[in-house]
Amino acid sequence: MRFSAWQIIKQGLTGNKGWTPHWRSPEPKPEYDVIIIGGGGHGLSTAFYLAKEHGITNIAVLEKGYIGGGNVGRNTTIVRANYMLPGNSEFYSHSLRLWENMETDFNFNAMHSQRGIINLFHSDGQRDAYARRGNQMISQGDDAVLLDREGVRQMLPYLDFEQTRFPIFGGLYHPRGGSARHDAVAWGYARGADMRGVDIIQNCEVTGIDIEGGIVKGVQTSRGAIRAKKVALMTAGRSSQTAAMAGLTLPIESHVLQAFVSEGLKPCIDHVVTYGMGHFYISQSDKGGLVFGGDLDFYASYAARGNLPMAEHVLEAGMTLMPMIGKARMLRSWGGIMDMSPDGSPIIDKTDISGLYLNCGWCYGGFKAVPGSGFSMAHLVAKDEPHGPAAKFRLDRFATGLGLMDEEGTGAQHNLH
Ligand SMILES: Cc1cc2nc3c(=O)[nH]c(=O)nc-3n(C[C@H](O)[C@H](O)[C@H](O)COP(=O)(O)OP(=O)(O)OC[C@H]3O[C@@H](n4cnc5c(N)ncnc54)[C@H](O)[C@@H]3O)c2cc1C
């Protein structure tokens, strides 16, 4: 079923009884051309672009839980193209352009809202760094405006400009940045892939990867063995575990990242705002909740929940920046498992095992990457060669040390990126 104004009128007049499920629940077939392990944003978008761009439709996406239950449905939904280093810069720029056409592409409302992002700075040194980043963004073809203190005050009058320990000097404004409804992105890609013939198989955990003579042959799952010519590992925070099934040890650590949401409020925060001197960023969802988060909990874990000291740390930073949020009641908090790479940049590459492809290392920035990652991964799987904007996301950079992309300049420590 395609969504259109006509459908809404028709269904509205006939008791809304004609809507059909967004995707089928097929039984796994014995064999596929491509198996994608992991039905998160990246796995689903890869299936979608394999079908749409390359005409490959004999695909199964195997998801051990339900679609949207992983990080794609747990993140704080910030979408931006404000990266600086060659490699990241062109990739995220490409991804943002795909975002701008995505809803038409898969015919689903993912509530993508380009409300603008403002990264605050609080010192002369930080201003210089943001000016440099803004220039790089503009030279990549994206948008950036350096705001002074008064410029920020006009857009974000509710911030505490006078009394904070770290006075606000200004902000880097990225007008095309914004947010989206996270699980709707998963549903949209699932729906678009299903419409093109892709089998999305939920509650199907991959428990082994079959390899013979260095060539991938298929997977073992909780619903039996399935053969495949090509297998793509796209399990985000669980990447080390699934790669281990193929005998691979990845340069990835899994860390917890928490997020928080307040009760629903009338619209009061129009943009995405990040604090330059504390672990805090915030936006307001279309339901009215203030959605905010901070940094990692700083220890490796597979538990999708965080600890109280980090919650306190984030709330404290929020109160420093905008004391008004102290009046809001917090509704809930949750955690997700981040696939942290040593340089903070991702991996989209072939492995040494023929027919086995790897996509991981998204750290806490993989939501905005969903369209770009799927597009590039589909190209890699279909053509066996890297896609231009993602060509620098090589796995061997961690063995050779060549081509590392340490966007934050924090060195080779997973949990600092
Ligand atoms: C609190 C939080 C805030 C974030 N904020 C942002 C943000 O503002 N902006 C941004 O760009 N990014 C953000 N991120 C990061 C982003 O969510 C992730 O980088 C991205 O979602 C990861 O890719 P994915 O969607 O494919 O992962 P997932 O949705 O986790 O998909 C992986 C899937 O693999 C499945 N799987 C694992 N093992 C197996 C197996 N053996 N068999 C079958 N299936 C398996 C899992 O069940 C899961 O569904 C945030 C993350 C968190 C947790």
Main attributes of the structure:
eight-stranded mixed beta sheet, 417 residues, alpha/beta, binds flavin-adenine dinucleotide
Question: Can you put this structure into words, describing what you see?
Answer:
By secondary structure, the chain is α/β, with parallel strands linked by helices. The protein starts with a helix and ends in a 17-residue tail after the last helix. α3 packs across α9. The chain is built from ten helices and 18 strands. The longest helix is centred in the first third of the chain and has 19 residues. The strands form three sheets. Strands 1, 2, 8, 9, 10, 11, 17 and 18 form an eight-stranded mixed beta sheet that branches. Bound molecules: flavin-adenine dinucleotide (FAD). Flavin-adenine dinucleotide binds next to α2 and β12. The site of flavin-adenine dinucleotide has 39 residues, from α2 and β12.
Quick structural summary:
The protein is of the alpha/beta class. It has ten helices and 18 strands. Helices cover 28% and strands 26% of the residues.
The rounded Rg comes to 21 Å
Q: Which overall shape is indicated by the principal axes computed on the Cα atoms?
A: globular
Order of helices and strands: HEHEEHEHEHEEHEEEEHEEEEHEEEHH
- What hetero molecules are bound to the protein chains? flavin-adenine dinucleotide
* Beta strand %: 25-35%
Secondary-structure-derived class: alpha/beta
The major beta sheet can be summarized as: 8 strands, mixed
Average pLDDT rating: 96
Helix content: 25-40%
Query: What's the end-to-end separation, in Å?
Result: 42 Å
Q: Give the number of helices.
A: 10
Unreliable residue stretches: none
State the total count of DSSP E strands.
Answer: 18
